[in-house]
């Protein structure tokens, strides 16, 4: 495959992606509100814990349900992810509060 | 008058009788069902002690149920009260939380995988790996985390320390860390490498024994910053750094990242800055500058520069009824001009050149999460292109290019079955195409 063809394929894939993205959704990401309780804790930029959970976690991996772990487990996991994903303290606390609201 | 005297006499006789009779009665009571003053006082003291213990227990239980919302001062007071009633082998939670090195929160995460690989030119092979991550929250600000890679090797088992890091949350925006850590400039290794996250069974060429380091030993400062509705993040580090290969004809001029001991007093400085203009969109720039030559040799003053750009987009699309994951990264490596094998001792010199290498990947995945039917919405299609220039000396394989196509099925949020085919073309070599089957689970 020639270099031109290679970059054409990459550009086409990028264009397809950008053209099909629901840009309005960027205004406020939605979490899985049907199955989990919404937290009222908000971060410094007024996004709820559920929104921040939805925004940040699935940047890298599938989201885990709040009921998967206990409160103390979530505390450690969110601490770990705050360091790994470079979350601000306010965002991490809002996410932790939301995840803890669904304790088993 | 006589009557009055009779009454007085009767009263005196009765007083004398009771005066004599009381000690006898008192003696009988002491030996019977009643208590003495001394016993009464002892019982009273015991009751007060029990009340004090009960109050201590109540405070201890209240502290356990509301320790997160109470001030440290209150916790300390409760913990102090609890010390009088709780055995030393089971200290109250409040006391542990107050401790700078408590044992309150420990968690094991990680993943496991089993892979079948059939690569052209190699015998087909099954492999398994177990990668536990140990998370130990020593205090609300202090975290120790480490990851092992455990996998069969020959007739034994190979255990490798992937990273071990102690981090401290200085404030909401700054985290300090020391130890062995994933190089922040290599965003794939830091975030997407775990096999339950990586959407293909194999890793991109440029980030695996390629242009960028995977791990570093040193110190780093990192964190996130809110910028209005957007976010930025940063990671800067000082580490041992890479070593310059000067002995091998095919690898001369390449930076070696696998030897973690340092070869000079110069430390590498690097980092990555990321910007999230929109939710689910991140662009990043990473770099590392170093002096990779061995101290005391002609290569000691040779400088190297690594640079990397990356773009990561994850978004649900209503129009295409599913979720897209787009990851792209490209990296460049530069080493200043140097003369390798100047005396011809290694059989390929003298050879003078500037070492330039580059490589990267583009990956797109689609999962129709908004379609009806559990089977269909759990499928995921993945495609990836990746490239690596290999021998800057011009004496080995010049470059390698791969295309990969994979189909995944998600059994759960952290359990995936992958099937993939990889077209692998290293210039001037037979193709190294490969089939993969892999099961990976994150926990």
Write the layout of secondary structure elements.
The complex is a heterodimer of chains A (104) and B (443).
Chain A (H helix, E strand, L loop, with lengths): L2 H18 L28 H9 L13 H14 L4 H12 L4
Chain B lengths: L1 H29 L6 H29 L6 H11 L10 H6 L6 E15 L5 E15 L2 E12 L2 E14 L5 E8 L4 H6 L22 E13 L2 E10 L3 E2 L10 E2 L11 E11 L2 E10 L13 E14 L4 E19 L10 E17 L6 H4 L1 E11 L9 E14 L2 E12 L7 E9 L1
Antiparallel strand pairs in B: 1-2, 1-18, 2-3, 3-4, 4-5, 5-6, 6-7, 7-10, 8-9, 10-11, 11-12, 12-13, 13-14, 14-15, 15-16, 16-17, 17-18
Helix pairs in contact in B: 2-3
Report on the architecture of this protein:
The complex is a heterodimer of chains A (104) and B (443). Chain A has 104 residues and is an all-alpha fold. In chain A, 51% of the residues lie in helices and 0% in strands. Chain A has helices at 3-20, 49-57, 71-84, 89-100. The N and C termini of chain A lie far apart (54 Å). Chain B has two domains: 2-80; 109-442, Porin. A 16-stranded antiparallel β-barrel of chain B has the order 1-2-3-4-5-6-7-10-11-12-13-14-15-16-17-18. Chain B has a two-stranded antiparallel ribbon with strand order 8-9. The radius of gyration of chain B is 37 Å and the shape is globular. Chain B starts with a helix and ends with a strand. Mean pLDDT of chain B is 84; it is low at 15-32 and 66-91. The chains are: A mainly alpha (104), B alpha+beta (443). At the A-B interface, helix 1, helix 3 and helix 4 of A face strand 1, strand 2, helix 5, strand 6 and strand 7 of B.
Structural class of chain B: alpha+beta
Oligomer: heterodimer
Helix content of chain B: 10-25%
- What's the CATH class of the largest domain in chain B, please? Mainly Beta
- What is the beta-strand fraction of chain A? under 5%
Q: What characteristic shape of chain B results from the CA principal axes? A: globular
The biggest sheet of chain A amounts to: none
Strand content of chain B: over 45%
- Report the principal-axis shape of chain A: globular
User: Which runs of chain B of at least 5 residues are low in confidence (pLDDT < 50)?
Assistant: 15-32, 66-91
Distance between the termini of chain B: 109 Å
Alpha carbon gap, first and last residue of chain A: 54 Å
How are helices and strands ordered from N to C of chain B?
Answer: HHHHEEEEEHEEEEEEEEEHEEEE
